[in-house]
Amino acid sequence: MLKEVLIVEGKNDAAAVKKAVEADCITTGGFHFTRRTIENIAAAYARRGIIILTDPDSAGENIRNFLSKKFPQAKHAYIPRDEATANDDVGIEQASPESIRKALSKVRTLEINPREEFTAAEMVALKLSGGADSSRLRDKVGAALGIGYGNVKTFVKRLNNYGVTREEFMEAVALEAVGSDSAI
What we know:
The structure is a single chain. By secondary structure, this protein is an alpha/beta fold. The chain folds into 2 domains: 1-110, 3-Layer(aba) Sandwich (Dna Topoisomerase Vi A Subunit, Chain: A, domain 2), CATH 3.40.1360; 113-184, no CATH class. Helix content is 46%, strand content 10%. The strands form 2 sheets. A 5-stranded mixed beta sheet has the order 2-1-3-4-7. Strands 5-6 form a two-stranded antiparallel sheet. β3, α3 and β4 (75-76) form a beta-alpha-beta unit.
């Protein structure tokens, strides 16, 4: 049983999570939170901690950002978009139990004082920005690091805010370079 309570968007997401792990879930019902939902999340945050596991789409990112501001010590788990897509639908409910467990094994917490170690210029130099294959490579590196997909600005922000070390970043980049036709 997970100590933290998982915050997901809907009932089907909660059902998918429960097929993967033994955990309590709170559903947000989308972005229109009720006062009671926020109170329930606040109580879970105070007592057990929370892990935000929203869909890998813009609505899920908006929910994650809103909750991150209200609950700054929340933990975050990301499922790559390609592992959460089926039948032309994107969401946690589409992810396999293995993908959910993998995402939960790479949980990250936002740092109070984000670093400025990684830069957009570095992403260009490593072909994670500006190239024909950059988006796909960022997606793969983000999945390996457990920080999800983002455009370059979001990706750099997550690298700096989630405490990714230089060593784990370079290891993830090297792994994706080996699996890619591009030379990084």
